[in-house]
Amino acid sequence: MVIKENKTEVYALGQHISMSVHKARRVIDQIRGRSYEETLMILELMPYRACYPIFKVVYSAAANASSLLGSNEADLVISKAEVNEGTTMKRLKLRARGRSYRIKKPTCHIKIVMKDISISEYGETFWFKTEKFFKRDVMQELKKTKGKNQDRTREEHDIYNNGGTWDKK
Hints:
ribosomal protein, elongated, ribonucleoprotein, RNA-binding, alpha+beta, Ribosomal_uL22_CS, plastid
């Protein structure tokens, strides 16, 4: 709901959602680091009950980003997604012979932080590292280290021919 310090991130909170933290984290782990449009498709197609409240929080974070930052939905990426444990509601279930058992109903708090990748912290355009850009960066790093350690050779560990510990019968 509030803009973060660097003016490129906006977040939304969903508090006191009646769901276990473990069930919500199972879904949150799937959407962390993905784009906004891809996240909506994933959440609509996943068969878990936790998807709907998370969908609402993601949608709210995108609405906050478009209203506060004026950003386009295609430029939004989930930079941080976390699920924290909320209060536990304690209820009583009546049983036979006048007894009662305590039932714990857990709640959780969901926080989604969205980042606009078209705006950088310095006012320049910012390219999100897709797989293509990541491969390009790896190749540049290999070119930098190409001439440094040429005299050293590394022998590959061959688990099938070295007669290791697994060959004992």
